[in-house]
Amino acid sequence: MAATRLIPMHLQKGRSVGQCLKDRTDYAKNDLKTENGEFVSSYECNPDTVDLEFELTKNQYEINTGRGLKKEKDVIAYQIRQSFKPGEITPEEANRIGYETAMRWTKGKHAFIVATHVDKAHIHNHIVYNSTNMDATHKYQNFFLSSLALRRLSDLICLEHGMSVIPEKKPGQWQKRTTYSRKSSRRDDIRGVIDWIFENKKPKDMDEFLRFMVEHGFEIKRGKYISVKAEGQKNYLRLRSLGNGYADDDIVKRIAGELVVDTGASKVSDDVSDSVALSDSEKKLDLVLDIQNIIAKQKGPGYERWAKVHNVKAISKTLLYLCEHGLKNFDDLSAKATEARDRFSYISSRQKEIETRMAEIKSLRQHIFNYSKSQDVFIQYKASGYSKEFFEAHRDVLLLRSAAKEAFKKMDGKLPTVKALDEEFQKLLQEKKELYVEYKPAKERMQELLMAKQNVERFLNLQEMQEQDYQKKKNNPSL
Question: How far apart are CA 339 and CA 348, in angstroms?
Fold first, then answer.
């Protein structure tokens, strides 16, 4: 899955073409973002001198055509920003996809560099291509809805490489990436004052309520509906516009005690969320230490005292955990721990199976494409009487065809179609996503249950040892 954007790079005011190109390309080639240039590739230019080569091509274009720069209106280069979904692609594959995207977008007529940045959670490409073609006779002509065409090309390449694509959505279905907290409005402030008056002053009638409002700096206008205006406010606001619980009739009901408005819902929800977060942190279990082993290692009396206190706290947390999860005896705890371990083992092994099968599907799809593309060349090769000269001229294509045939021979049964492989790949990808969501909670649950089980076992063992020591001392008081 890749999100794309096409960005024209204009000549900046007060700067030369070379300076502008160097700024753009240096950012793309940043060593900190590309693992010291490991994920930088290029076409018909050297990444180290790409800005100079772009500038030379533009100078040659001016000589060939007699058309100079139009200063700030001129586009000196274009940038394609191609961002991939986190965890779906490696930097090497992202760079290959970026190179293929740039080659098919420019049709091989413009020099470009592809820099893959790995400093963020999402791997992304910065593709910078010269607006002047390599012959220095024409410039790239941007067109209406070019960003949509670029997106479709990127989606097609992603599908060819076995990746997912962003589903089509209508403009009304788009979601904002950033959500901001709601700002307090005039009506929120007025509602806050009214709630404070009912909570602290407890007015006996409407006149007393309005008098308290005046004391808080509000101007009152009485008519068919009561309106208020705060200091610095231009227009009056009717109480009925404040919502349920604040209209004229609602105020009368609140004074009479017939209506109660929940004014602390947000505060209560915040407190609840804080308590939930606190309880989650307290649920993390600590492992009970083997004090006898600590004594044997001669850690010292201070460390021994700390270990005893630590064990008391760890056992307390374990008991709370068992009560909260309804585990009333050791057999239930053992069964739950075994079940959690088996579930986590299944998720881990199934993920590996899915990844292996997805890699096989990718390889098989590529072999099918290579075999199909080489069909015409093989017919000509056969017509030439399997000529050595023809083979050398088309070595790469024929070798790919031979590798594809060998892969087909190793298969059991009929060769599947590309459509069937794509459907299987999408099903495996969906299953992988579902397992990925379940992986972390399953791992945490397994670790908690196994730790609780180990703590209980060690605690029961300590009790048994203490009982044995007590019986020895009872039988032999001299000990």
Answer: 14
Could you please report the per-residue DSSP string of 78-125?
EEEEEEE-TTS--HHHHHHHHHHHHHHHHTT-S-EEEEEE-SSSS-EE
Q: 368-397 in b/e burial notation, b at 16+ Cβ within 10 A?
A: bebbeebeebeeebeeeeeeeebeeebeeb
Size of the chain in residues: 479
Residue appearing with tokens 């990925």: 436
Q: Which residue reads 């087909």 in tokens?
A: 408
Closest CA to 18 of 48, 51, 61, 62: 51
- What is the Cα–Cα distance from 434 to 26, expressed in whole angstroms? 40
**pLDDT for position 93:** 92
Residue 243 carries which side chain, given as an amino acid letter?
G
pLDDT for the residue numbered 474:
63
Q: Are 239 and 246 in contact (CB under 8 A)?
A: yes
Whether 58 contacts 132, CB under 8 Å: yes
pTM value is: 0.41
CB 78 within 8 A of CB 111: no
Sorted by where each begins, the domain ranges of the chain are 2-166, 186-256, 266-324, 331-465
Q: In this predicted structure, what is the pLDDT of residue 266?
A: 37
- The domain made up of 2-166 has a fold known as BirA Bifunctional Protein; domain 2 (3.30.930)
134 near 57, Cβ under 8 Å? Answer: yes
Count CA atoms within 13 Å of residue 375 on its CB side: 6
CB 413 within 8 A of CB 150: no
* pLDDT < 50 regions, the chain: 265-284, 287, 291, 294-295, 298
Task: Check residue 295 and give its pLDDT.
Answer: 47
